[in-house]
Amino acid sequence: MNDELLVQQIKSGDQKALSSLYEAYRPEFIKWIIKDYRCPEDDTKDIYQVGVLIVYENIQKGKLDHLTSTLKTYLFSVGKNLAHEWSRKNQRHQPFEQDHFLRTLANDEPEHDMLEEKLDLVHECLKKIGPPCRQLLEQFYFNRKSMEEITVSLGYKNADTAKNQKYKCMGRLRKFYEEEFAKQLT
Questions:
Q1: pTM of the model
Q2: What is the pLDDT of residues 82-101, one digit of tens each?
Q3: Which domains, ranges and CATH numbers included, belong to the chain?
């Protein structure tokens, strides 16, 4: 069905259109959030329902009268933000998983026997990127501090500035890691 037509039908109160939207992307969304965010299925279902509700409210408010993407893309974007929020709330209560950090860094699945070598390489690369980045990444990934806590402890202007710096630091760390990993292969 045409997304613009679906939006107009939902806006006019057509419950079948809303149900159609809800059912169309639910299995794919749930599978994606469970896989990418390691979110329990029950929480993922809640995230999806809230995401559809937000999309519905935005349609009713007229925010989606002129779509700049597909309705699926918009719904998944809302869901992604909700999953990030869920992750931020729950990450302080979950142990740090070094293998997940390595997979994120190396963009591959490390073999079990190489895990220690890759972790050592990450630590070496952390030393190379310098104290500000190293402290930020260690506080976030190893000490599981929130962006608000990092903002205070490292003296950033606000949490958004700290997030932006974390993104840049991860880019630098990834670059160092890839260079060092390539050297080891040769």
A1: 0.50
A2: 888 888 777 644 444 444 55
A3: 3-91 (1.10.1740.10), 98-185 (1.10.10)
